[in-house]
Amino acid sequence: MKILLIHGLSRTPLSLLTLEWHLQQTGWETEQFGYIALTETFDRIVERLRVSLRALASQRSYGIVAHSMGGLLTRSALGFSSIELPKHIVMLGTPNQPPRLAPYAWRLPPFRWWTGQCGLNLTNPGFFASLPLIESNYTIVAGTGGPRGFWSPFGDEPNDGIVALSETQLGEPSRVVQLPVMHTFMMNDSRVQKTVVQALGKED
Fold first, then answer.
1. Domain 2-201: what homologous superfamily?
2. How does DSSP assign 66-91, residue by residue?
3. Distance in angstroms (rounded) separating the CA atoms of residues 74 and 56
4. For residue range 76-113, what is the model confidence (pLDDT) as tens digits?
C-alpha cells in the first residue's frame, strides 16, 4: 500500500517530511501532493488531486494521510468521483465542521490574500454542508493541547489551538483519537506518528 500525504493550508510538503520519513522507515512507500492556495482556487486544487488519486489507484492500493485543509481537499476529491477509494484515510486536525476561528481570520487582509478560496470556504457553513462524507475507513487525530479557560476562544472545550475537538468530528466519535498536541506541528509528534502507523496498519 502506498501512502499519499497532503499538507495543510499555508504549509508545504516540507511540513510532512518528518512524518513521511517515519512512514518510510515503517516500510511504506510514500508520495506527497502539494498546492499553494495563493495561486490556485480550492476547486482547481481538488481537480489536480483527483488526477493524482486516479493515477495512484490505477497502480495499487493506497492510503491517505492529510493534515488540516488536506482532509477537506480529500473529501471533496473523492466525493462524486469514479475513483477507487483508499484503504484508509487519516486526518490530522482537519476541521470537518465550520471552525469558529475562521471568520475572525478572514477579517485580516493578509489571511484573505494568502488563502484565497480555500480560506473563504472555511468561513462558509454551506461549504461544509456540501462536502461528501467519507466512504473509506478513516481515523481522525484531534489535538487537545490548546489553551482552555476564560480567555480562550474555545472556552473549556478541548482544542489544538486552531481547531476545537468538536470541529474535527465526522460521523462516529469513536474514530477520533485525542492527543495533547497543537495543530500546526502535530505531525511531528511521536504520539501522532505512532497513531498514524497503527491506523494504516489495520489496512496494510
1. Alpha/Beta hydrolase fold, catalytic domain (3.40.50.1820)
2. EETHHHHHHHHHHTTS--PPPSEEEE
3. 14
4. 999 877 899 999 999 999 999 999 999 999 999 999 99
